[in-house]
Amino acid sequence: MNAVLSPMETLKRESHGLRGTISASLDDAISGALREGDAQLLKFHGSYQQDDRDLREERRQQKLEPAYSFMIRTRLPGGVATAAQWLALDALATRYGNGTLKLSTRQAFQIHGIIKQQLKPTIAAINQSLIDTIAACGDVNRNVMVSANPLVSAAHARIHADAAAISEHLLPHSRAYHQIWLDEKPLLDVDETETVYGPNYLPRKFKIGFALPPINDVDVFSQDLGFVAIVEDGELIGYNLLAGGGMGTTHNDPRTYPRLADVLGFVSAERVLAAAVAVVTAQRDLGDRSDRKLSRLKYTIDRIGFDAFRHEVETRLGVALAPARDIRFTDSGDRFGWVAGDDGRWHYTLRVESGRVADTPAQPALSGLRAIALQHRGDFRLTPNQNLMIANVAAADRAGIAALIEAHGLDAHQRGSALRRTALACVALPTCAQAMAEAERYLPTILDRIESLLTRHGLTEAPILLRISGCPNGCSRPFLGEIALVGKAPGRYNLHLGADFQGRRLNRLHRENIDQATILSVLDELLGRYASERETHEHFGDFLLRVGVVRVPTVIAAEVQA
Prior knowledge:
The chain is an alpha+beta fold. It is built from 17 helices and 20 strands. It starts with 6 loop residues before the first helix and ends in a 16-residue tail after the last helix.
């Protein structure tokens, strides 16, 4: 491996514990942006510097700098927030942001459109709500995901507690965040030694997810580190440990690829934190720090070999991993509407298209959820699929919540196709710097077009996973879609087909760099065949594989099946 460090590694090492000159950049009234190095370090504090790409050329011609703004992302293990916290974030998005809340595919809130002068007040206010943004981005462990399935209530609570403990343990020790954003005074006796991360932190971002079979809503095989809960007689006994998943890739660079996690073995519930530290520190010490395109854990495992990596983890853990337990996943989606937990409390999952909570003429979602939060005595849970669960509703409160849902048109899952209910899209244009094509803004259009095809072929209620990404970085987990559009250029996408419905098989590139007309022509033919040739209960991705439209994939998740 090349021993020359990438520029980002040098920046992290010389950042004085992620401080850089962020404070000075914030005080600079001349520009709406931070200095270049500070904009990179800002990610470790939970924010991205962005600009409105719709306005770039106009502002360039006017000899103005880009229309800079900032996105803030929360650290929210498992996506659980109180009603009071929802109201606080709603108020901040309305006062400082663009008037919307974004529910991300990592179960975190995002507030978009914050100008530099309001960045510090917004982060400080988020902390006052007892939510923070520490390590929501950057080369550290990101927000820890947890299955939103609450049906086995006691086990789910224990799983969430394990996820929260890992999230807390893997926070940076640097007090830079507290000093920059919360005006904490530096203390001489505070030890900021990064015992887990080291002075350079991780080679690249790191993602952890907890799945609770039979629902794989966190797409656990896409995570750098996955924990699959093993529950017997309602009690959590441990986890199957997975490592090496990742969706990000780069167009036309064959060295990069999406990958599904491997199954390392089984760990008892008491060793979950130690197992997480073992995997994270192995990546810290063995990951590639010279080429950021090859720095994720998936490339580390493929470079040194799976057996060598498992041995490294076991050595750090101090015990051999037990054989993985039998598991079975049935799907990767959300259960909409009312469901009851085994403790008698109720949970309502509502559909939020692209995760964007906003007031529109058709659906006053932000106002509706504000009204619910004022009445709700339980909590809110962001799902891994950009939807929202109104959770822990007492039986006596159910009718009142249901009335507010209906009054504000929040029961969108009852309208449209099954495809619409499960579609994912990243933000993409105009604010994402990596976007090559539209995603969130394009989703309503392409859904309408594909739904017309589904209606023609009698497939309106056929559950099909559609995912759209504005670039190949994979924020919407596109390579696990039965149909996926990955942005290549404005109005043009790579069409990927053939993932399964359980999150265990990657799709494959079917057509490259095609426009909407070609996409719809291809899908029209394939959906027609699916309607007439499918077997009973056969999913679309499985059908494409069986009839040879998609060739046998090279990588299928090594799920242990009962």
